Amino acid sequence: MEISDEDNPQAFVKTILLTLQSTSLELDSLVGTLTRFLSWIELLSSSEPTCSSPPTLKLLNNYLPQVQRVLLTQIVVTWEPLLKETDQLCLIDIFFCPPQDRGRWSGLAAIHAYASLCSEPISHSSIRLLSLLTSLYNIDTCYRAIYEIRELNSAQAFVLWTETVAAVFSVPGKIANMAHNQIDVPTEFSQGLYLTKLCRNVYGLIEQISAGLGVPVDYDALIHLFSKMTNNGLFPLRKWKAPSDVSFFSTNMAAIEESASRSPNGLSSPRIWTQIMEELPPGTRLSVICSLFSSLDATKVDLNPSPKERWAIKQKSGVLRHILQQSIVDVNILSAVIAALMKDIWGMAIPRILVCYLFLENPKAIESTLIRVVDRWADPAHVQHSLLSYHRYLTGLLLLLVSYLEPSSKPLSTLSMSPQFISSIGIYISHLDPAVRRCGLLAAETVAEKTGKSLRFDGWDGVGEGREWARDLRTLLSSRDADIVATEDIESPEECNQATPSPVSKLSQLGASGSQVTYDSDDSLTGYGSPPSSRSPSPTPEELDEIERDPTLRVGRKQKILKPVYVSQLIEMLRPKGKDGDHESVEKLDVGLSEAAELIRRKRNFGFELAENAAELSRILLGLQDDYELDNFEKRREAALTALVVCCPQVAGPLFASEWFLNQYSVSQRFTILNALALGARELAGLSTSNASYSLHHSFPSKRLPLTLHAKYTGLQPNVVQDLLEGIKDNMLSSRPQPRNPETRTRRLRLGELPRNLVAGANRVAEKPTFSYKDLAAEYFIIPLINGFWSYMRDEQTRELRTKHTERPYQGAGNATIQSPLVLVQFLRTIGVLIHAAQNSAVYLSVLAPNTLELMLTVATTPASIAIRDDGNDQTAQETVSALEVTLIILVACQELDGCRSLALDHTALLLGIAQWTSDLLTILDNGMRLRGASGPQDQTIGRVVAAVALRVDEATSKWRRSMVDTLV
Questions:
Q1: Which of 39, 242, 529, 732 has an alpha carbon 20 to 30 Å from 920's alpha carbon atom?
Q2: CB 588 within 8 A of CB 611
Q3: Where is this region: Disordered (predicted)?
């Protein structure tokens, strides 16, 4: 296919594309087509006829990538061996990596080559072309090539730059992904080497712009480049360790130090680093500054006060002056520097370098930094919960900033009189760790001494508990690093490398020298003879040291089980190991049970650790079995479950309610769940959880042991819920509750003087509970239990009806099920305790009271199972008494709150149903009949409770009868 000279460049390019895509292409035609196109875009000088119209930028941007992709996908795959034999392969190379001096479009061809090569599957040919391209056109060359094209405006250049940056950074990843195809990857494309070269090229680009070599400046492009480098991990927080990890500042630190030493003030011109730092996004700026700190290789300096190290610190501050320059005046830059400084524990070398730089560049920045550091240092949460290393780091930074302030300066005097600083000293002094305590004492002494005041604490001499660190810091603060001047008196490197022996090593040396004494006055004394001991000899100090160095020598020795510190540790200790668990597992379980309740209560207001693990911990505690016959197993488990209800009611309450209706738990476990709910609810409500109201009254001496010993020797567990409900019922039957009296406040105001106990109680500051039971009772305690009971009853009765006419019908009222009288009575009593503690709830009258009364009425009047009346069960009286007791509690509370108005008007049918139920019970008792299972004492209890309920119902109906009639009508 012949190509004629045309005036239409677009038609010329389309003809080139059709020729390259032709299936009947010959070698000569291919070479001629490639030569003509290269000559047209001025990348190759040739006498072949070509298009008379020169190429335009728009045309090349549209068609040059298409030509390159056709070459990669069709020409190179087919013609590369033949082109290589005829030495014509260089034509293909020019399309992708033309020489830099070949015309004005050479850079544009290389820019598009990056995108074309990275968008197609990687092959041997593309790797070879990428190797040539990256060697000729690195990132700084691409930048100059784009921004030296005059036809491009700033927006077009920026778009082209972003595409190029993305392609350049994707090269090593795309090549690495093809390594599984048995492709030999050159070492230059390994992640570490490629990114290291890229970092050097980026720094070279910035230096070229700073030197004013005619390179155009586009800060948006540089900001995008730095953001891309940050996203690719070239600004790490710590120095890299793996070969594939690269740091921009660590790679170029030698060049940066050389540039900083050439500039007398550490500044480059123009201020390109300042502009970059100011325009970086906040997150990227923080990453860049943190990476800069980690690259300042001065970790060995730390608290070394020698002149040699002080001079090294001052020289390192020149690196910060070269990079940050005068941008520290900007508030955002200073905030980022302070945030990076307090983000991690850098050691004292980085704060020394930074404070020296701030003092030399902008002394006012020291005041702003001091304010931020004091806010963090004096934070009570930091004082109580931070690690010792962070305490020492912040204290050293604080005192380092103070050392650069003049004694008469206003910031220093303000700090010494600051209430925040003074109160924090007291918090430090009350800390349990003596090493942390000395951080506060040292800060107080240093600030007082700096301001000319006298404040001295004792206990600085000696070894241990932070005394050595305090002495080293005092020595460092005796002079400032910024005041050091290079003189001949600076120590040599050999002298600097000699480590000063610590006090511990000095004591060990003294001990070693003392052991070399050849004569002692006691050597002439001879001890009395004694028979040889049958015990094994005690280990010598040398043997003890060897055991400490080699832990394997301690195998077989019993290790003390440590108490759990975190909830996750407690979960691992309580996790069941089976009946065949070893002795260590049994001890861990014993320790875990003993410490569970206390640990849960300690973690109540400490983060989200308890809330995140409360569900798992609850299920583990509920599922525990006393396989090892541990002492007070049930008591300790109940205490832990109660603590969970108190500390995590939103999690534990609904969880216990749902778990109680599962069939996997025994009667003892169900009782434990109900006890935990009852005790936890009363504790949240501020009520007593003791059983003081339940006591035995004997008119004659009893031969029974005290209750504690009786329970110990008989194995009986006290019924906590029954005792609590007995006390509540006795209080209601013995005294008639009165409605809330609105005149109480008026009467008290008329008194001349309040009793002393009332005054003392008013002045006492009570601890505000985290949760209030009146706000949680309906949603997390009572309603989940009631709804769960209705769902369980519906499912059980449905199963009974389905199997009613079979040979062996299903009966849901077995001895170990929820419908058994023993478990059902305990359930009703728990509801009574919960509803009594919730009478101050906002939804008590509208939700809690009617729903609970409906449950009590249904349980007392409807059989739990179809066959329950025919099995001779004697627990009917207990169920009735429990339902009556709960009903009495609710009626008394409703009368106190609104005189039973809501119950009588909004739930008239329910109140009349209770009246009919009590009337039937009174009729039975008046006729001399007994309820099934009732004994002598139970007859008296039933009579008292039925009479009390009937009296309350009669009072309510008498008061609201007319309105009730209107409601029914």
A1: 732
A2: no
A3: 487-551
Among residues 463, 430, 457, the alpha carbon closest in space to that of 443 is found at: 457
Stretches where the chain sits below pLDDT 50 are 1-3, 5, 47, 49, 266, 268-269, 491-530, 692-701, 714-716, 737, 740-746, 748-749, 751-752, 754-769, 814-816, 868-875
Q: What is the rounded distance in angstroms from the CA atom of residue 210 to the CA atom of residue 540?
A: 69
Question: How far, in whole angstroms, is CA 628 from its chain's centroid?
Answer: 37
**Amino acid letter, 570:** L
Task: Give long-range contacts, CB 8 A cutoff, 24+ apart: 788-796.
Answer: 788/657, 788/658, 788/660, 788/661, 789/661, 789/818, 789/827, 789/855, 790/855, 791/661, 792/661, 792/818, 793/819, 793/864, 796/865
Cβ atoms within 10 Å of 15's Cβ, excluding its own: 20
**pLDDT by residue (tens digit) across 808-867?**
666 655 444 787 888 898 999 999 999 999 999 999 999 999 999 999 999 888 765 555
Long-range contacts of 739-745 (CB under 8 A, 24+ apart): 739/895, 739/896, 739/899, 740/896, 740/897
Q: pLDDT tens, 645-702?
A: 999 999 999 999 999 998 888 888 999 999 999 999 999 998 877 653 333 334 344 5
Q: Give per-residue pLDDT as tens, 619-633.
A: 999 999 888 888 889
Sequence-distant (6+) residues with CB within 8 A of 523 are none
Give the residue carrying structure tokens 């107080």: 444
Q: CA 419, CA 551: separation in Å to the nearest integer? A: 50
- Measured between alpha carbons, how far is 946 from 889 in angstroms, rounded to an integer? 12
Domain spans, the chain: 1-189, 296-492
Q: Give percent of the chain above pLDDT 70.
A: 75
| Integer Cα distance of 680 and 683 in angstroms | 5
DSSP string, 444-455: HHHHHHHTT---
Q: Which residue blocks in 838-900 are alpha helix, DSSP H?
A: 849-861, 876-898
**Tens-digit pLDDT profile for residues 869-913:** 444 444 467 888 889 999 999 999 999 998 889 988 888 999 999
Looking at 386-418, list the stretches that DSSP marks H as alpha helix, in order from N- to C-terminal side: 388-403, 410-416
Smallest CA-to-CA distance from 821 within 794, 792, 860, 790 is with 860
**Looking at residue 682, what is its pLDDT?**
92
Cα-flanking dihedrals φ and ψ of residue 74, to 5°? -125, -45
Identify the H or E element spanning 679.
Answer: helix 667-684
